[in-house]
Specification:
The chain is mainly alpha-helical. The protein is built from two helices and no strands. Helices cover 67% and strands 0% of the residues. The protein starts with 9 loop residues before the first helix and ends with a helix.
Length: 70
């Protein structure tokens, strides 16, 4: 519907995804707040699984960096 009006048609997809995400949030937010749920962001950087993931990603990131510099 909107992509023929845009200079780059792929922007229509991006706008649709963004609008869908915002609408989904707006639909769910009232019920979430009514039930007393809050958005608390907790992230334990010392959790064993997080440490393991970082340790496993280290060589991959290093390899990609070397590839990009080469």
């Amino acid at each position: 519907m909107i992509s023929p009006l845009l200079e780059e048609p792929i922007l229509g997809l991006a706008i649709g995804v963004l609008a869908g995400g915002v609408l989904q949030l707006l639909v769910q937010l009232p019920e979430t707040l009514r039930r007393g749920l809050t958005f608390v962001r907790t992230f334990n950087q010392r959790h064993p699984e997080v440490v393991k993931m970082v340790r496993l990603m280290g060589p991959v990131v290093l390899g990609l960096a070397v590839y990009e510099l080469n």
